[in-house]
Structure formats: structure tokens, C-alpha cells
Amino acid sequence: MTKRAFYDKAGRGLTLLCAAFVIILTISIIYYIGSKGLSSFICNGVSLREFLFSDQWRPDRSLEEGGPQVGSLAFIIGSITVTLLSVGISAPLGVIVAIFIVEIAPGWGQRLLQPAVELLAGIPSVVYGYIGLSLLVPLIRSLFGSGGFSMMAGFLVLSVMILPTIISVSTDTLRAQPAEWKHASYALGATRWQTIRMAILPAARSGLITAVVLGMARAFGEALAVQMVIGNTREIPTSILSPIMTLTSAITMDMGATVQGSVWNSALWSMGLLLLLMSMFFILVIRFVVRRGAVQ
Amino acid sequence: MNAKIKNNLATITFWVGAGLVLLILGTLLGYIFYHGLKSIDWQFITTPPETIRAGGGIGPQIFNSFYILFLTMIISIPIGLLAGIYLAEYAGRSKLAEGVRVAIETLTSLPSIVVGLFGLLVFVNATGWGYSIMSGALALTVFNLPFLVRVSEESIRGVSRELVEGSLALGATHWETIWRIIVPCAFPSLITGIIITSGRVFGEAAALLYTAGMSSPPLDFTNWNIFSHTSPLNPFRPAETLAVHIWKVNSEGLIPDLRRVADGSAVILVLVVLSFNFGARWLGRLIQKRFTAV
After folding, report:
1. Are the CB atoms for A85 and A240 separated by under 8 Å?
2. What 8-state DSSP symbol labels residue B172?
């Protein structure tokens, strides 16, 4: 084999190795987080039902008082409600802005809004958290008279954070739609709104759903920005003004303060595993939506 | 209500939506810069922080952020580039390629706190390094890699096929073509993509809390012995980055001038990240001009 042929083979092998590394890395993340996350059920004897459906969170209670309890329902509900509420704001607003960019003002709208969206996406999440803490929390406190640290502060911060994701994915989808359908709709005498509602939006449906699910995944997994503004009370929230705690904020706050192997610590790893499973679930949803969209 | 009125109402809604996004962005940036620029001066960005008294700076945090970013990029660029080359040039529609794509999707959507947890298990505990710059850089590699693979795959796919076929027709091997033709041609967009991902890495905090740690030992910036504990270059010392510092002072800070430190840190973090984002595009265009005369 000549030197050139050898380099050719070796180069190919090297790229293959790096590609395989990405797969191995992913599998080892799933393996390590999975085995550590399951240890609270296997080693510490916590029942899965207690972890998922009980709101009794007393991880530091001594054995004489009945042993530690790690029901994480309050955190799970916190994560889910804050995610859904933020998507409830951002999904309509994001799609509206994407339509504005693509259909209403393709020229200057794009030149002005595209960089604006990139700027929003570029602001680091701790900065969002800090602005939430120093601007939004006092505002909520003075408007509604509560403590300010609340679910409301959390989902408002999150909705701004996931907006760029939703806008940019929606914009790409809308732009990829064939122009003929739009032209056909206008030719039939439809107004712009009718065209958007009946030709453009239905055609782009699977892409728009993907955009929203991606935003949802980002909201569910966000840790610090949320943790800084939600007040972190370990109770099931009763209104949008009550302080709450999410899975990510529980991990952020307690992981460094608990002893490895304790029930409390293991429960935090199980929450990490739950976050991992949720992010994989969101990917599956997207794959499903895209496949169905492709069939239609 | 007839179709025309509905149409006008819809148009107004779209304008309001677009205006709202611009308003939010303006408020955010205005707030950061108005409060931040008041708080920074040369002393603030060069001196170490105080724990109880007022008047501390963020010098070591800025250094740590750049140092971790540097190490992260050193580790992740070769892997990301080569994996991207594999996907764009060799993989085709093979099973392995499909596996890599699924892996990248999984890694992309992984919450960064979970990346931090993985780092805590493997790079902090299993290696025995404890909270260290190296652990942080490896965790950020995991965080950064999927984006980098995508960037390099897309850049390489963007190279015109005629050039590639010309090179192959002249008798160059595939590997020679990749290194002499494809990578140089993809260079401008590679650089742009790499700098943009750097901005993400620079602003990341959640993955670093339990890998690089939340404290910074006293540093002696005249000590260049990388094995010394006070040397800023020692990769096995704990290091709090700028992004982590913003979180830390707000949640556990005892200093009386907390607000000033947080404002100043936030504006510097945002300035660096935004200059990465916009600098990347500018540099990409510049290199494009210099290299290709197009």
C-alpha cells in the first residue's frame, strides 16, 4: 500500500472514530445518569410511585420519625406548569412573529427582526434570570402585592427565553412552503389572513409543532434562570403568584449540599434521569410529528 | 364581520406581535446596558471579588471563562470537525450515520444541568480531579459537541461539488481532497460557526456549577507554573466563571454591593457573547473576501 493510500484509509478511519465517539458519549450519558438515577429505587428502596406521585418531600427526616420521604410531585408539577404556561405565551407570539417576518414584511421585517431574534437567542440564561430577578420580580411584587418570586416570574422569563427558538424554527418552516399554494389562494380571491389561516398555516403544521416542542424542551430543561425567580418553595403551587420549585431548581440547589448515596441525593439523581427521559420524549414527539407530516 | 375587516384585524395583530418582540429586546438590552455600564470600570474588571466587603471585581472570573472556553474549543473542535467530515463525506445513508444523527439530536436537547450531572459523575468523581477547570471544559465539550458537528457538517456540505470532483478527477485521493480542497473552502463558514458556538459556551453556567465549581482560589497572575495551585493556568484547580458568578452572587452573595457586581458582570457577559455573535459574521465575510476574491 502506498503512503497516499494509507493516509486515505487512516483519515477515513479517524473521522469514523470521531463519529463513533459521539454515539458512545450519548450512550454513556444515558448509562451513567440512568444507573445513578435508578439507585434511589434499587439501593435506597424508594418506590417509584412515591417518587412520582407523592408530594411528601421530607428528605432529611430521621429514621425514628419514619425515615426520609422523597415524593417529588410538587417539583414535577412545578416543571410542567411553568413549561406549559411559557409555551402558552410563546407559541402564539412566536408563530405570529414568524408569519410577520415571512409573509407581512419579508424585506425590512426580516432585516430588522432576524438579528433581533438572534440577539435574544444570544443572551445567556443567567442574564435572563438576573433580569427576571431584578426587574420582573419587583414589578410583580408591586403590582400584585405578593412576594414577587413566583410561578408567574418563572414562566414569563421562560417565555422570553424560548421565543427565539420558536420564531427561528417557524420562520424556516414557513419559508420552505411552496409559493404556488399561496398564489393559488390569492388567485381564488382570498384575503391575506384567509390565505395565512387556510393555506399557509395548515401546510406548515408539522414544522410549527416541531418549533413549539423544541421550545417546550428548552423550557423544561432550563435550570438557573428559573431557579433565580421562582422562590423555590417545596409545595404544590396554588396560584400563579405562589412560589414554586421545579426539578431543575431542586437539583441546582441541593446537589452540592447533600451527601452522596443518601436518599436525598439519590432522589436528585432520579430527577436528573427524569429530565433526561423527558428530553428524549420530546425528540420522539418531534420525530413522530415530522414523519406524519411527511406522509400527508 | 366580513373578510376584509378580519384581514385588517389580523394584520394589526401581526404588527403588534412583531413590535412586542422588538420592545422586549429593547427593554432587555437597555436594562442591561443602562445599569451595567454604570457599574464597570477598569478596576472592576481586573481585581478579584470580595467575599464580605464592597468594592470587589471580577478579574479572575473573566480569565476563568476565557480559559475554560479555550480548553473546551481545543478539545471539541478536532472531534466535532472530524465527525462532521464523516457525516458529510463518508457516511451516506449508513446505519452508523443514522446513529450519529440520533445521538446528536439527543445531545442537543439534553438540558445543560443534566450535562453538568454527567460531568459530576465522570469528570469530577470518577477521574478524582474534583471541581476543576478540566472537568468543566470536558462537560462543556459534551454541551458543545453536537452543535459543532452540525456546524462542520453543514459547512462542508456547502462546498461546491465541482471543486471536489475536479480534485478527484486530477487523481487526488478522497482524504487529500478533503484537506486540500474541502476544508479550506469551508473555512469561512466553519470559523463563523465555531465562534457562534463559542458564544454559547461562554454564557453557559448550569453545566459548570458541579464541574468547574463555584469558587476560585486566590490566583497569582505572575505564576506561570501550571502545576502550582495559585497559577491561573493550572487546569486542575476549581474555577468560577463569569456566568456562574452572576448566579452565585445573586443566590448566595453576602457583599453589600451585590447589585453593582451583578450588573457589571451581566453587561460584560452580554458584551462578550454578542461580540462573538456579530464578530463571527463579520470575520466570516472578511475571510470569504480574502480567500476567494468573490
Report:
1. yes
2. -
Range of the domain at A222: 70-295
Q: Tell me which of A4, A22, A128 to substitute to probe the interface with B (most B C-beta atoms closer than 10 Å).
A: A22
A220:B111 CB<8 A: yes
Tens-of-pLDDT digits for all 294 residues of chain B?
A: 688 888 888 888 999 999 999 999 999 999 999 998 888 888 888 888 887 777 777 888 899 999 999 999 999 999 999 999 999 988 878 888 889 999 999 999 899 999 999 999 999 888 888 888 999 999 999 999 999 999 999 999 988 888 889 999 998 888 999 988 899 888 888 998 999 899 999 999 999 998 988 887 777 777 777 777 778 888 888 888 999 999 988 887 778 788 888 898 999 999 999 999 888 888 888 887 877 655
How deeply is A107 buried, as exposed, middle or buried, from its count of CB atoms within 10 A (0-12, 13-18, 19+)? exposed
C-alpha cell at B7: 384581514
Q: Is residue A50 part of a domain?
A: no
- The pTM of the full predicted model, rounded to 2 decimals, is 0.91
Do A171 and A75 share a domain, yes or no? Answer: yes
Same domain, A9 and A128: no
Domain match, A2 and A109 both: no
Q: Give the chain A residue nearest B251 (alpha carbons).
A: A228
Q: Does A220 touch chain B if contact means CB atoms closer than 8 Å?
A: yes
Are A112 and A190 in the same domain?
yes
Distance CA A167, CA A91 (A): 9
Q: Which residues of A touch B176 (CB under 8 A)?
A: 4, 7-8
Q: Which residues contact A113 (CB under 8 A, 6 or more apart)?
A: A97, A100, A101, A167, B18, B21, B22
- Cα–Cα distance measured from residue A110 to residue B243, given in angstroms and rounded to the nearest whole number: 31
Mean pLDDT of A267-282: 92
Whether residue A141 sits in one domain with residue A94: yes
- A253 Cα to chain B: minimum distance (Å): 10
- Measured distance CA(A85)–CA(A239) in Å, rounded: 12
Question: Is A193 at the interface with chain B, CB within 8 A?
Answer: yes
Q: Residue A11: list chain B partners with CB under 8 A.
A: 174-175, 178-179
Residue A4 is classified by DSSP as: H
d(CA B218, CA B240): 12
| Contact indicator for A290, A206 with CB cutoff of 8 Å | yes
Domains parsed from chain B with CATH numbers: 40-292 (1.10.3720.10)
Which cell goes with A262?
A: 443518601
ipTM of this model?
A: 0.91
User: From CA B16, how far away is CA A126, in angstroms rounded?
Assistant: 28
> B149 Cβ partners below 8 Å, 6+ apart?
A22, B80, B83, B84, B87, B100, B104
Angle between helices B95-109 and A205-221 (to 10 degrees): 60
The answer to whether residue A72 scores a pLDDT higher than 70 is yes
Nearest to B247 among A28, A126, A279 (CB): A126
Interface touch B277/A122, C-beta < 8 Å:
yes
Across the interface, whether the CB atoms of B206 and A125 are under 8 A apart is answered yes
Are A74 and A26 contained in the same domain?
Answer: no
